[in-house]
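Bench log. Compound arrived from synthesis this morning; before running ITC I wanted a structural hypothesis for how beta-D-fructofuranose sits in the protein. Inputs:
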Amino acid sequence: KNYAEPYRPQFHFTPPAKWMNDPNGLVYFNGKYHLFYQYFPERTVWGPMHWGHAESTDLLHWKQLPIALYPDELGWIFSGSAVIDKDNTAGFGSNAMIAIFTYHNDELWKAGQKNTESQAIAYSNDEGKTWTKYKGNPVLNNSGEQDFRDPKVFWHQETSKWIMALAVSDKIKLFSSTNLKEWQEESVFKPENDTENLGVWECPDLFPLMAEDSQETLWVLIVNHGDKAPNGGSGTRYFIGNFDGKTFTQSQKALWLDNGTDYYAAVTFYNAPQDKKIVLGWMSNWQYATKVPTEVWRSAMTLPRKLGMVKADDGYRLTQKMIPQFATLTKPEWELEKVNTPFEKKNLNLSQAEVTFSMDQPNDAIITLTNTKGELFTITITEDMVVTDRSNSGKTDFDKTFSRKPQVMPLGEKKVTRVQLILDKSSVEILLNDGLYSMTNLFFPTEEYSILNIITKDKKPLKNLKIKSVARIWD
Ligand code: FRU
């Protein structure tokens, strides 16, 4: 069986072989979701970047396709986005799929020069199978900053313009265009009082989203940060506010989209049906991504998650829910309506599983995933925070940052009452209260976890504990 090497996720996207990082060019077209990704097809570490390509009709089963974009004399192909040019504004044909990406000149970059990154476009008239790079590239030249990359482009109906959000050093710049070829700077976003140095800003996304309860539409600006995410290294933050076609204005304090260490470069699909906002992240961290103990391939994507927005006392928050079709992969294995704690169940297949339960509020709980060797991953839920600990989870010594400290997620005003864990070989996606809080973590046990243990404060019972197996997505 292929895709069956140790630690290889079975229902998360991974490249067939070699190195992958950010999702790129996420776009829906003609019934298919396209996933392009940062890809180095020669080694299992980062290097000259290409855009790998896969497509899916359900966001779960992926078909691997040939490499879409190769590096050339202008540079390596760094991250970016893709749009469908319905009205042929660029002149490449109506409904052309157009990729907007960064050229990165690594030689100049290594030599310490500044003008090393620029934005360029390529188009496809056959659903992303073959690509032609535009002769007039680059379409947006560097303004003299070393980090000038990861264009996210969308059509802004109200102004009839394309808008590009670009990460420029430690801020976001917005540009506009009528044809994707000529770009005009509109504004700069750099929050006031943002004193923390969060490293280089990367992979932005900007889109409107309607709040579930108030029906109010607000704009969300996602920014990925290279350093000092809540638990170290890289992470994804978001701002909520307004966009008037030129300027983004923040209306509340920034929040982190996922508080685990393994959720980065997250961006959303363009053109998804019914304006659904589906977000996908790279399930790793630059601190140790090139060292994780996998062979053949390196890195997976998170599961696609549906973004929503809810209003809490402390402001609006994004929610991330499993897409409904995820249920088609799951099969009930064991469930009980009322479960007394301490609870323990052995001989489970926790390497491809979904575990869910609810609790009366407030209720502190410690969830332990372990194996017969005593390697363990723990999730501690209290009233104010959730803490995950992978210090004895299995292989950890490939990098000292991997398990140096437990990971902490502070909670907002809502306490945790519903728990969902999605386990796939070497990862857990922890979604709490229907995706109001999320934490994504990697681990590398030397034997698969097979024992689930849950204890609660005051020995309060759990409700509706369900353990489901999850089917593999590869044939
Ligand atoms: C984010 C990132 C992007 C860049 C790409 C290079 O992980 O550093 O800013 O375009 O990866 O592979």
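What the model suggests: The helical segments are 106-110. The chain has one helix and 34 strands.
ITC booked for Thursday regardless.
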